Amino acid sequence: MFDWLANPNRFNRISEKMQPCILLIAIITLISGLYFGLFDSPKDYQQGDAVRIMYVHVPSAWLASFLYFSLAISCVFYLVWKHPLADLISSAIAPIGALFSALTLVTGSLWGKPMWGTWWVWDARLTSMLVLFFFYLGYILLSNAFERKIDGSKTASVLAIVGLINLPIVKFSVDWWHTLHQPASIIKIGGPSIDDKMLLPLILMIFALSFFSLYMIILNVKTKLIEKKCEALLLKANLEEISKAG
Amino acid sequence: MNPKYRRLFITIFIVLTLGLATKLILMALEDNIVYFYTPNDLIEKFGDTQNIQNKIRIGGLVLENSIKKVDKKTIFIITDKKKEVKVVFDGSLPDLFREGQGIVAEGMFKNNNFIASEVLAKHDENYMPPEVAEALKKNNVWKGDAD
């Protein structure tokens, strides 16, 4: 089944059809999410308007974690089944995930200053999120650090799988230890502790950023496939020239 | 065994082993990972505040009617509804600082008073519009500003 899915031509054909729909959903949910988030949702009883940072912060944090999970699983497929497309997908996910984890840290910092009274503290949630960001950077750097691409891919995949251990720490840090960061508001026992009018833009923004990521990842994979094809063509042309000269 | 499955088992084995190792490390480092102690934690851990020489952080709720201003100093009591700690702070307080609010104070003990060098506000996981908060308070179903 994986072989069926992992055929580059089939991937291209299917993604060609899906891409416009994905982009459309991303744009519609982004516009409505931002509208509800910035204009048509109530202030928080404690935090006032600063609560609106949540509509970017929380979806970014979720995507940073979810994309890391996808990246690591894709690396497992690459290491175990050795399919080159799995490696392409991991390297397509990495910059998007790094972007969202950076966005999480920056928006969190901007939110922390007015609410907590500090830009940054070394509590378990903030630190583990920073570690997640470093795993993304490490993956990107390592996969480009070797002369032979395949060595880089393998080493970086191992690193990505090791980083999987950090994910439950990010999620549960607020329950396992006392942190300055609040505990979960949405996925928790007893249902969300967030007003419905605030939950709506939050969910819209989660959809928006998810579909945006999906779109960008497909675009990245396609670009990398074309790059590979170009490399192969160049190699072929060079070989022909050599054989002619010889 | 099929080399694919061997690689898969090795991967799973490595992840589980490293996971276990990480768990043990985190358990050993628990004291460094907790961002603050509640007043009750402190008593359980150190027995008496006299025994605490280092800089630490205390977290809890600001006790109702406990905030006093003396000169430029703010004096208030942090409680976890079991034990209380008297805090003296000379500096600027975060906007969210008020009675009943969860806060974290960093500082040192001096004669059973906690001399704070920094006070941070902690907000809980409840989000609601001001009207809803008012209505909850009015109907006495307010759960209070948690931890």
Observed structural traits:
heterodimer, A: 246 residues, mainly alpha, 8 helices, elongated, B: 147 residues, alpha+beta, OB fold (Dihydrolipoamide Acetyltransferase, E2P), 2 domains, five-stranded mixed β-barrel, 4 helices, 32% helix, extended
Describe what is shown at a glance.
By secondary structure, chain A is mostly helical. Helices cover 78% and strands 0% of the residues of chain A.
Secondary structure topology:
The complex is a heterodimer of chains A (246) and B (147).
Chain A: H1 2-5, H2 8-38, H3 54-81, H4 84-115, H5 124-143, H6 149-163, H7 166-176, H8 196-245
Helix pairs in contact in A: 2-8, 3-4, 3-5, 3-6, 3-8, 4-5, 4-8, 5-6, 5-7
Chain B: H1 3-28, H2 30-33, H3 39-46, E1 56-62, E2 68-70, E3 73-79, E4 84-89, E5 102-110, E6 113-122, H4 130-138
Parallel strand pairs in B: 4-6
Antiparallel strand pairs in B: 1-3, 1-5, 2-3, 3-4, 5-6
N-to-C series of helices and strands of chain B: HHHEEEEEEH
> Biggest chain pair contact, residues each?
A-B, 41 and 42 residues
In the CATH hierarchy, the architecture of the largest domain in chain B is: Beta Barrel
H-E order of chain A: HHHHHHHH
State the helicity of chain A in percent bands: over 70%
The general outline of chain B is extended
Structural class of chain B: alpha+beta
Radius of gyration of chain A: 21 Å
CA-based gyration radius of chain B? 22 Å
User: What is the count of helical runs of chain B?
Assistant: 4
Q: Strand tally of chain B, please?
A: 6
Number of individual domains of chain B: 2
Distance between the termini of chain B: 53 Å
Q: What gross morphology of chain A would you assign? A: elongated
Mean pLDDT of chain A: 92
Mean pLDDT of chain B: 86
